[in-house]
Amino acid sequence: MKKYLLYAFVLCFSQSYAQKKINENLKKELDSIMKSDQILREYINFDTSEDRKKEIVKELGRENDPNFRKGIWLEMQKRDSLNLIKIEEIINQYGYPGKSLVGEPTNIAAWYVIQHSLKIGEYLPVIEQEAKKKEIPFTYFAKMQDRYLTQQGKEQIYGTQGQMKQITNKQTGKKEFFNYVSPIQNPATVNDRRKKAGFTTTVEENAKEMGMEYKVYTLDEIAKMN
């Protein structure tokens, strides 16, 4: 009996250790993919300093490329397509590469690639499942769910997504870009939902971080803006 209990303990410990052991090769691959996904987005971010932009250009080996800025959006699309192929291959082989498999913050690498793709609807149930298992933070599922809803022309739930629309300035008669937080379901209780989901900021604070002022709009109000 004692021998059986000892065997059971060793087996349980071995399985637990195996589950916690990080796949270092996969982690390195995903870190590389995430860097590929983020580096051009960092470059075009309004908060990125000119010094950092120069570092990025040097890091990419594009110092002598006069067309770098002009072709940045096309290059980003190409990167996104290639990265999605890689991520789908990884998911097919391992399942979603979460915290148990690749550690943190590498566990959000696949999330970023899917979030920047046209396949959010396909992978949203997987992301929800992984969030419930704590393989990725629940806030990441919330962000993806919000993005999917806004892409479908529906109200988001957590107020994580902002959008841009070109409208006519009534005073000047000229077209201008209008930034706004996408319409939210039951906006009066959005901060309660955000807190429950794990967000540490309010919808107002999040809007400010996105460079816009929070104001409640309905889908009809946005549709009528021109």
Spell out the blueprint of helices and strands.
Blueprint: H1 2-20, H2 24-44, H3 50-59, H4 72-94, H5 99-102, H6 109-115, H7 120-132, H8 138-151, E1 162-168, E2 175-181, H9 190-197, H10 203-209, H11 219-224
Antiparallel strand pairs: 1-2
Provide keyphrases for this structure:
226 residues, mainly alpha, two-stranded antiparallel sheet, 11 helices, 2 strands, 58% helix, disordered N terminus
Task: Tell me about this structure.
The protein is mostly helical. The protein has 11 helices and 2 strands; from the N terminus they run ααααααααββααα. The protein has helices spanning 2-20, 24-44, 50-59, 72-94, 99-102, 109-115, 120-132, 138-151, 190-197, 203-209, 219-224, and strands at residues 162-168, 175-181. Strands 1-2 form a two-stranded antiparallel ribbon. Helix 2 runs antiparallel to helix 4 and helix 7 runs antiparallel to helix 8. The longest helix has 23 residues, at 72-94. The radius of gyration is 22 Å and the shape is globular. Residues 3-18 have low confidence and may be disordered.
